[in-house]
Amino acid sequence: MESKRAIVIPVTLKGPNYLLWSRLTKTAIGGKGLWSHCISDAPNDSKGVATQAEGEAGSKPVSEDRWLQEDLTVLSILQSSLDPSILEAYSYCESAKELWSTLKKIYGNLSNLSRVFEIKKAINNMSQEEEEFTTHLGKFRALWSELEMLRPQSFEPDVLNE
User: Fold this and answer.
1) Spatial separation of the C-alpha atoms in residues 38 and 41, rounded to whole Å
2) The whole model's pTM is what?
3) Model confidence over 50-72: pLDDT tens digits?
4) Residues 10, 25 contacting (CB under 8 angstroms)
5) CA–CA distance, 130 with 86 (Å, rounded to integer)
6) Helices 113-124 and 133-150, axial angle in degrees (round to 10)
7) Which of 11, 64, 113, 128 could crosslink 136 through cysteines, CB 3.0-4.6 Å?
């Protein structure tokens, strides 16, 4: 990790906001060069890497130790961005990749019809009232962007019906 500045995810995952949370998390973690921890396992290739103490039995390559340290850092960042109820349910995950893929399976269902319904309902019930126009427009665009991500990218009737 190049920088010692703490990585903070500006949104807490509460379930329905998975798409926003995942985009912001990918940006924050990827910006520090640590995204590979969420999508791949530890590298197995240790050719040409110096060990901690030459000749010491059971010594790990330095890169493996660094990978483990970075993976635990990413795991900690992910865990700190979860709502307490979600954190409690998924605290058993031992690697960043395991936690990321588990959360994606549970909350990242792109054909989530209940979420599509919630977004459409929220868009239909929007009212500017005393709110500034730019604030109101921002909320509308955020909902519309999420709806676009959830809609199928096809015009085939079978796909749309599903």
Assistant:
1) 8
2) 0.62
3) 444 444 455 555 588 889 999 99
4) no
5) 34
6) 160
7) 128
What is the residue-wise DSSP string for 60-128?
A: PBHHHHHHHHHHHHHHHHHHHTB-HHHHHHHTT--SHHHHHHHHHHHH--TT-HHHHHHHHHHHHT---
Alpha-carbon torsion angle 105, 162, 24, 35, nearest 10: 50
d(CA 159, CA 153): 9
Q: Nearest Cα to 13, choosing from 99, 128, 97, 122?
A: 99
How far is it, in rounded angstroms, from Cα 100 to Cα 23?
12
Per-residue pLDDT of 26-57, as tens digits, reads 999 999 999 999 998 887 754 434 444 444 45
d(CA 113, CA 161): 11
Which residues neighbour 29 within 8 Å (Cβ) at sequence distance 6 or greater? Answer: 7, 35, 37, 38, 74, 77
Are 12 and 83 in contact by the 8 Å Cβ rule? The answer is yes
Which value, in Å, is the radius of gyration of the alpha carbons in the chain? 21
> 108: which 2 tokens?
């990242």
